[in-house]
C-alpha cells in the first residue's frame, strides 16, 4: 500500500503523457472533470450532478466520523457447490479478491456516524457485482448482532446485482438469514438505515435492504427486484423512461428520500439522531 | 406431452400394448414376447428413473398433471375454504390460500398456484405472483398467528413476476416483508416444495420451521434457464446450469436447505398424483407432530436458528 502510494506520487512529474490521467470524464454528460475535484465531490459530476459508482472505502470515509472506523469484515468465501460455468467459481473469487483486495463483496465495521455509535456495512459492486453469497449474508447477520449487542445503529449501503448464483440455494437462504437478524435491532429499539445506491436489485432489495426504518436512495440509482433486461424479455416492449430509478421508487412510495450524495451524511445523521433512543435532542447537529 | 427422455419408455409401452391387442384379436399366443418386452420395460424404467439428471428432474417438476396446491388442498385436506384478496389492491390468482383441516386439525394454508391447462395458466400467470399475492399470504400469516393454528405453505413458482406492474407496486418490498412476516410466526410453520422453487418468489412463503421437498422438485436462487442465459450467455445451456446449481432434493438435503425429501411414484408425481399426495400428507403429519410440543417463543427461535446456520464460509 505504502509503496503504491509512493509510486503514484512520483508519476505526475514524469511529463506530459501523464496529464490525461489527472482528468476523468462524466459518464452522463461527458464533461472533463479534474480527478481530484471529482473525488472531493464524492464522484458526483459537478456539471450535471450524475452520481457515479463509488469505491467502498470512499463510502466508509464519507459516512464514518474521521478516525472512528474499525473494520470487522474478514470472513472468506468458500465454493460449497464446486460451481463451474465458463470458469470455476473458485477462480472467479481469486480474481475478484485480487482486483479489490477484499475477501468478498462487503466492507464493514464499527464507527461513529455524526457521533452516533453504529455498525456500518458497505457492499462493493466491484466484487462479483456486489452479489450476496454466504459471506455477505453472514457479515450482515453478524453486523446486526453486533449492533444489537453494543447498542449501535445499523447502516447498510447497498450496491448489488442480487444473490450470488454460484452459491445457488445457499445464497437464497441468506435473504432469510439477513432479514431475521434485523429482529435483534427491533427488540432493542435500535435504528436501521439503508442507503440504496446504483444498482440495487434482486435478492438484496428483496431482503434486508427494503426493511430499514429509513430508506435513502441516491439520485438516478437503478433499484428494483428484476433487472431491466429480464423485464424487457418478459413483456417484450421497451421500458418507460426513468423506470426503476430512485425517483420512480420515491414516486411509488418505496423509499423515504432521494438524497444527493453530497447531502447524504447529513441526512443519515439526522435520521439516526432522531431515531436512536440514546441520543438526546440536538437539532441541527 | 411426453418428455423427451421418456420417449423410449413410451415407445416400448406402445409396442407391448400393440402385441397384446394383436394377441387378443388373432388368438396367437404372444405371452413369451410380451413378457420379454415387459421385463425390458421394467429395466428401462429403472435405468431412466433411477438415474435422472438434474435437468430431467426440472422437467418432471414442471410436468403437466403434477399435483398443484389446489390438488393437494382438495385431496389431503378437508373442508378447504379459500379466502381471497390482499385488502389493498387485488386478488392474485397466482397465490391461493385459506382455512382447512388436516386430519381434524385446524390449519391455515397458502400456496403458489399454476394452471392445470393453458387457459388456467394464463389466468394464474403461470404461478408467478404479483405483490398483491404476497400481501394476501401475509394476511393469512396474521390469521394463523391470531388463532394459533399451524401455517402450511406449498411452493410451486418459476419466480415472482418480473414485470412493470409488479415493480411499480414494490415486488422486492413485499417479498422482503413476507420473509419477515413468516419468520416472525409464533405457530408451527411447514413448507412443502411441490414443483418449482424459483428464487425470492418461492422463499417469500418458505421461511418455515421445517421445509420438505418432493423428490423431483427443484429449489434455487434462479431458474436453470436464466442462470444459463447469464453465466453461459445461452439459455440452451440450462441442463448444465441445472447440474451446477445443485438444485435437486438430494443436493438441497445435503446443504440443509431442506429437512426431508418426500418420495414420488416412479416416473414422477404426475404418474400417480394420489400416491404422491398421500406421501406428502404423511410427511406433513409427521412433521407437525414433531413441532407440537414447542411453545410460541420456541417456534420462533427454532426457525431463527434453522436459517441462521445456513451458509458456507471460512473464518479468517
TrEMBL record, chain A:
It catalyses: N(6)-carboxybiotinyl-L-lysyl-[protein] + acetyl-CoA = N(6)-biotinyl-L-lysyl-[protein] + malonyl-CoA. GO terms for biological process: fatty acid biosynthetic process; malonyl-CoA biosynthetic process. Transmembrane segments: none annotated. One of its GO terms (molecular function) is acetyl-CoA carboxylase activity. Its EC number is 2.1.3.15. It is found in: Cytoplasm. Keywords: ATP-binding, Cytoplasm, Fatty acid biosynthesis, Fatty acid metabolism, Lipid biosynthesis, Lipid metabolism, Metal-binding, Nucleotide-binding, Transferase, Zinc, Zinc-finger. Acetyl-CoA carboxylase is a heterohexamer composed of biotin carboxyl carrier protein (AccB), biotin carboxylase (AccC) and two subunits each of ACCase subunit alpha (AccA) and ACCase subunit beta (AccD). This is Acetyl-coenzyme A carboxylase carboxyl transferase subunit beta. The gene is accD.
Automatic annotation (TrEMBL), chain B:
It catalyses: N(6)-carboxybiotinyl-L-lysyl-[protein] + acetyl-CoA = N(6)-biotinyl-L-lysyl-[protein] + malonyl-CoA. Residues 36-290 form the CoA carboxyltransferase C-terminal domain. Residues 9-47 form a coiled coil. GO terms for molecular function: acetyl-CoA carboxylase activity; ATP binding; carboxyl- or carbamoyltransferase activity. Pfam families: ACCA. GO terms for biological process: fatty acid biosynthetic process; malonyl-CoA biosynthetic process. One of its GO terms (cellular component) is acetyl-CoA carboxylase complex. Pathway: Lipid metabolism; malonyl-CoA biosynthesis; malonyl-CoA from acetyl-CoA: step 1/1. Acetyl-CoA carboxylase is a heterohexamer composed of biotin carboxyl carrier protein (AccB), biotin carboxylase (AccC) and two subunits each of ACCase subunit alpha (AccA) and ACCase subunit beta (AccD). This is Acetyl-coenzyme A carboxylase carboxyl transferase subunit alpha.
